[in-house]
Write a structure and sequence with these properties.
The protein is built from 20 helices and no strands. The chain is an all-alpha fold. The longest helix is centred in the middle third of the chain and has 34 residues. It starts with 5 loop residues before the first helix and ends in a 12-residue tail after the last helix.
């Protein structure tokens, strides 16, 4: 079930809210918790009920492992739990890619397994790895199974994050007022939800066809077409993920829960280090805490630090998808981070506008690797970005066209100058005027969603595929 769908907004969400707060008001807090667990499982099973068993089994397994390592500090159980999680993720996500790669490199003919990637497996696997590590370190105190299920299943973050820690979420559900209807929280949540929905269905989905046309085109493209198409994808991905993050925060606010920030205007970054502190912040935190630091971090000299950075980013790239393009994208960002640390360590600096521009261009190149269907297409598009001999003025009119290019540059100005959703909402008291504006935006979104539904176009969030 998609956040940007009529069944979710007008059937599922009102019922989930009504059951949760209604049962709590009737003096049945445990039933209220179970109703939200059940609603979240229904939300997940709406995609494909056959994978509910995998999600539940993973949750029960990690709850058991977490209980044991918390009581006994059993390191072997901890390592076994982490390995089991990674094996599960590896089978579903990388078995086919691994077989294809071995066949290509060693000229073998191993059978290619046909495995359907379960929705959200990367997110709920990483969430639970963090949980069992936190349990081992004594940072996950409460071990109540229904509430642990709610921690994993809670539908606002289940499908595409943020990747949360047990200690961030469970104390909020334990608060005395957690199951009391809070009009202020609901109003704030609705504002977050509306702005996120607008980003997704009006902005990101408008950019998508221009990006798809470039990356799906088999022939040669000019420098203008390459830059325009990659800029379109750069804006699509930004507003798609920003929209999802806003909606997830808004939905959780409706249940009096605050999720950790996961997106903070990353295109305002002046360097790659800052970019990764702003983009998918909880994934960056997970990679730092559970991969980079265990590898040694910066404790063994500069050379080892840069190797650790590159390894971390390569694995982070592969986390997004099983393919050479994702691996290359991760390696590219790992090298950029190493260079950035070398640069700042030498005390060098650039004018801010130059630094931000170079950072943005580097990010666009990384998104080209991220989106390209294969390495050959990525190579040709990256070459086209710097093929000044292919410049043709008529390209401005043909693809994607002057109105589209003007729209993309307006978006570029917006992401650099406008406040974030969080800054906008927290800097003002939402009154009737704001409510009317948000209601208008919501109606615009509904009209766009109606058009999408009638034309049977897929509009799932990009991060749902990871």
């Amino acid at each position: 079930m998609l956040f940007n769908s009529f069944p979710f907004l007008f059937v599922f969400l009102p019922i989930a809210i009504g059951l949760y707060f209604g049962l709590a008001r009737l003096g049945a807090p445990k039933l209220a918790t179970l109703s939200l667990v059940g609603a979240s499982l229904f939300f997940y099973g709406y995609w494909d009920w056959r994978y509910l068993g995998l999600l539940i089994a993973s949750t029960l397994f990690n709850y058991g492992v977490g209980s044991v390592v918390r009581r006994h500090r059993h390191r072997g159980m901890l390592i076994g739990g982490i390995v089991a999680n990674l094996l599960l993720l590896g089978f579903y996500k990388y078995a086919a890619f691994g077989a294809q790669s071995v066949n290509a490199l060693m000229h073998l003919h191993l059978p290619i397994p046909h495995v359907v990637l379960p929705l959200a497996i990367s997110f709920y696997t990483f969430t639970q790895i963090a949980f069992i590590v936190d349990a081992y370190q004594g940072r996950a105190e409460e071990m109540n199974l229904p509430r642990y299920g709610l921690f994993v299943f809670f539908f606002p973050h289940l499908i595409a994050g943020p990747i949360v820690h047990h200690k961030e979420i469970m104390p909020q559900f334990a608060e005395p007022d957690a199951r009391k209807w809070n009009p202020a929280n609901f109003a704030a949540g609705l504002a977050w939800l509306t702005l996120g929905l607008f980003k997704k269905v009006v902005i990101a989905d408008t950019c998508a066809p221009w990006a798809n046309r470039l990356f799906e085109f088999k022939g040669t493209v000019t420098i203008v077409e390459a830059w325009a198409g990659i800029l379109a994808y750069t804006m699509q991905l930004y507003f798609d993920f920003s929209g999802y993050s806003d909606m997830a925060i808004g939905l959780s606010w409706m249940f009096n829960v605050r999720l950790p920030d996961n997106f903070n205007a990353p295109y305002k970054a002046d360097n790659i280090i800052e970019f990764w502190r702003r983009w998918h912040m909880t994934l960056s935190r997970f990679l730092r805490d559970y991969l980079y630091i265990p590898l040694g971090g910066n404790r063994f000299g500069h050379g080892r630090r840069y190797v650790n950075l590159i390894i971390t980013m390569v694995l982070g790239g592969l986390w997004h998808g099983a393919g050479w393009t994702f691996l290359a994208c991760g390696a590219f960002h790992g090298v950029l981070l190493a260079v950035n640390h070398l640069w700042t360590g030498a005390g060098l600096a650039l004018p801010r506008i130059v630094a931000r521009t170079l950072t943005f261009v580097a990010v666009m190149a990384g998104w080209c690797l991220f989106r390209a269907p294969d390495m050959d297409r990525a190579r040709r598009l990256l070459a086209a970005m710097w093929d000044f001999g292919s410049f043709r003025l008529q390209s401005l009119r043909t693809f994607p066209g002057m109105p589209a290019i003007a729209f993309l540059f307006a978006l570029l100005a917006f992401v650099n100058l406008a406040p974030t959703t969080k800054e906008w909402i927290e800097s003002r008291n939402l009154d009737t005027r704001h409510a009317l504006c948000l209601a208008l935006l919501f109606c615009v979104c509904l009209f766009v969603m109606r058009d999408v539904t009638l034309n049977l176009r897929q509009t799932e969030f990009i991060y749902f595929q990871f």
